[in-house]
């Protein structure tokens, strides 16, 4: 058992290192054609390609390897989760429930998808297999729970729990145990859209603050235990939101509304420097970025000879 666990750890470490090579691709949603659809582009903003076309399609999550996207669509009259290849083929509906199913997020190895749903008359976090099977409820409290993201080793989830008007960042094991509030800021201070760094050491997240009728959004960083919180954007007039890490952990993609213009997809270094506008679209909203590397972890692991690695760790 120890050797098997050690082997899996080595393989995941190797896969993560290989995945970090190259900047990969970014999926995002845009209304540039008159309705919300899913697009994909290179990490430098080039090669923008429309992926979906039927109905309103939102909240894309790009799987490791950059070949498959999970997203939400209301094309059938209810918000359900679908997957599609990045070339637009093999569109598949995964959920079929009278309640809303939202915000799908791929696990790092591409075998599972986390999401939130109102199917139990309350917003809760769920996990299912990549083909839609084995849909399992993770959180069961009375709070509004949403926006899940995976830990790099796929054993835990970050999510947003809203109690009494204050949204905090929680961490929970995938089986629902060990739920911990990392921020505990209460009302008037709302953290959303948390994203785990590829090395598991830091969390980037969005903070909404309110002064009278004015709202402002900034991107912050903290350690995974909730300490050492730093504001990366520090803008009083612009809004920055929905941060996601680059595969190598050196950059963050996010949406920004600058000078009252339309939201666009931007990148910056992990310390907040070197901001770059990738989409430069002044006519419609570009939002909800999802960044993935060029290597599929599952395929990489399966391609390594079990026997050879087993021999090497004896």
Description of the structure:
By secondary structure, the chain is mainly beta. It has 2 domains: 1-21 and 296-314; 22-294, TolB, C-terminal domain (Neuraminidase, 6 Propeller). It is 10% helix and 44% strand. The protein has helices spanning 2-19, 297-303, 306-312; strands at residues 25-30, 37-42, 49-50, 57-62, 68-73, 80-85, 92-93, 101-106, 112-117, 124-129, 136-137, 144-150, 156-163, 166-173, 180-181, 189-196, 202-211, 214-223, 230-231, 239-245, 251-257, 264-269, 276-277, 286-292. It has a 4-stranded antiparallel beta sheet with strand order 3-2-1-24, with no helix packed on it. Strands 4-5-6-7 form a 4-stranded antiparallel beta sheet, with no helix packed on it. It has a 4-stranded antiparallel beta sheet with strand order 8-9-10-11, with no helix packed on it. A hairpin with a 6-residue loop joins strand 5 and strand 6 (80-85). The longest helix has 18 residues, at 2-19. The protein is globular. It starts with a helix and ends with a helix.
């Amino acid at each position: 058992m120890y050797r098997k666990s050690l082997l899996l750890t080595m393989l995941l470490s190797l896969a993560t290192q290989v995945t970090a090579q190259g900047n990969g691709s970014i999926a995002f949603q845009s209304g540039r054609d008159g309705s919300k659809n899913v697009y994909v582009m290179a990490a430098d903003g080039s090669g923008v390609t429309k992926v979906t076309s039927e109905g309103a399609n939102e909240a894309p999550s790009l799987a490791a390897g950059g070949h498959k996207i999970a997203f939400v669509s209301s094309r059938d009259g209810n918000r359900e989760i679908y997957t599609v290849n990045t070339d637009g083929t093999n569109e598949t509906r995964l959920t079929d429930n009278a309640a809303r199913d939202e915000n799908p997020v791929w696990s790092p190895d591409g075998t599972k998808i986390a999401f939130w749903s109102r199917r139990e008359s309350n917003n809760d976090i769920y996990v299912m297999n990549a083909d839609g099977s084995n849909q399992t409820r993770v959180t069961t409290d009375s709070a509004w729970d949403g926006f899940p993201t995976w830990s790099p080793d796929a054993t835990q989830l970050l999510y947003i729990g809203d109690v009494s008007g204050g949204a905090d960042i929680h961490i929970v094991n995938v089986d629902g145990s060990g739920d911990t509030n990392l921020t505990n800021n209460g009302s008037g201070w709302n953290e959303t859209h948390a994203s785990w760094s590829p090395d598991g050491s830091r969390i980037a997240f969005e903070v909404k603050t309110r002064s009278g009728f004015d709202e402002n959004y900034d991107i912050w960083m903290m350690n995974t235990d909730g300490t050492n919180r730093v504001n990366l954007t520090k803008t009083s007039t612009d809004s920055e939101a929905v941060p996601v890490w680059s595969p190598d952990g050196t950059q963050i993609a996010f949406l920004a509304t600058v000078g009252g213009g339309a939201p666009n997809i931007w990148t910056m270094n992990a310390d907040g420097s070197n901001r770059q506008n990738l989409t430069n679209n002044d006519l419609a909203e570009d939002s909800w970025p999802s960044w993935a590397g060029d290597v599929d972890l599952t395929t990489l692991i399966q391609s390594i000879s079990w026997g050879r690695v087993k021999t090497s760790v004896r």
